[in-house]
Amino acid sequence: MRIPFYQFNPETFSFIDDPVLILEDFWSAEERRQFRSAMERATWTSLTDMPAVAQAFPNCGNWLKADIGGPEASHFLERVGMPCIANYIESFPNIKNRHVNFNFYSYKAGDCLPTHDDTDDAYTYAKGRKPPTRRLALATYFHEEWHPDWGGELIMYGPPANPGQQTSLQVTHCIPPSPGSLAIFAVPRQHRVCRVDALAGEQKRLSIAGWFMTEH
Ligand SMILES: [Fe+2]
User: Fold this and answer.
1) Domain span including residue 124
2) If you measure from the C-alpha of residue 121 to the centroid of ligand 1, how many angstroms do you get, rounded to a whole number?
3) Sheet with strand 97-107: strands edge to edge
4) How far is the CA of 92 from the centre of ligand 1 (A)?
5) How far is the CA of 57 from the centre of ligand 1 (A)?
């Protein structure tokens, strides 16, 4: 479902019925300004300084990742924590614990993320420790403006036309990083981030992305 946030009913929407939700104008211009200002104060780590991640996603440019500060993290979770998310998370049996993990990301011209389904996160955890299971992935955009020529779309895929053949994946959604929009989808699902085009110049694709997870 793709719908303006003011028309969306978070009580009745179900990720079981519709695994990809796109909300337009989720954040106000003032909220986006506040998150961008928090991003300016953040301490960024580049992909090349995260060797395990860089190895998992080679030739992806050199995008940046940062922790979200306390007040912004609270505001973020307060706003995105909608009943449809809780309903989906609680639909899984025998949950021991619930987890969230969100970060700031900054993609400049040349940066991208290849096709993956968000299940393989072993490189982010200590060996031998079972990571929580990612259930819903979220990506949302805070830059001031974004043009179609600048790239950086989130491409979502359905199952491959020929089972087991990655090259036959079928595109189901092409989600431009519209300022203030929010995409949430059920994991696992194959997806990728298109390379930000040179036509973006110095413009950055500024997002928060991460997961709602369960521990069993
Ligand atoms: Fe992903």
Assistant:
1) 2-6+14-215
2) 10
3) 2-4, 20-24, 182-186, 133-141, 205-215, 97-107, 64-66, 44-46
4) 21
5) 11
Rounded CA-CA distance 13/28 in Å is: 22
Whether residue 40 is predicted with pLDDT greater than 60 in this model: the reply is yes
Residue 126 pLDDT: 54
**Residue 105 identity:** Y
Phi, psi of 159 (to 5 degrees): -65, 155
Q: Name the helix (H) or strand (E) containing 174.
A: strand 169-175
* 71 token code pair: 């007040």
- The whole-number average pLDDT for the span 118-123 is 70
Going by pLDDT thresholds of 50, 70 and 90, the confidence category of residue 127 is low
pLDDT over 80 at 135, yes or no:
yes
pTM of the model: 0.94
167 CA to middle of ligand 1, Å? 18
What is the rounded distance in angstroms from the CA atom of residue 200 to the CA atom of residue 204?
Answer: 8
Say if residues 182 and 150 touch (Cβ distance below 8 Å): no
Q: Is the pLDDT of residue 36 over 80?
A: yes
Q: Which residues surround ligand 1, an ion (CB under 5 A)?
A: 118
- Number of domains observed in the structure of the chain: 1
Give the other-Cβ count within 10 Å of 120's Cβ: 12
- Which pLDDT value is given to residue 162? 79
Q: What is the CATH number of the domain that holds 184?
A: 2.60.120.620
Q: Is the pLDDT of residue 123 over 60?
A: no
109 alpha carbon to ligand 1 midpoint, in Å? 19
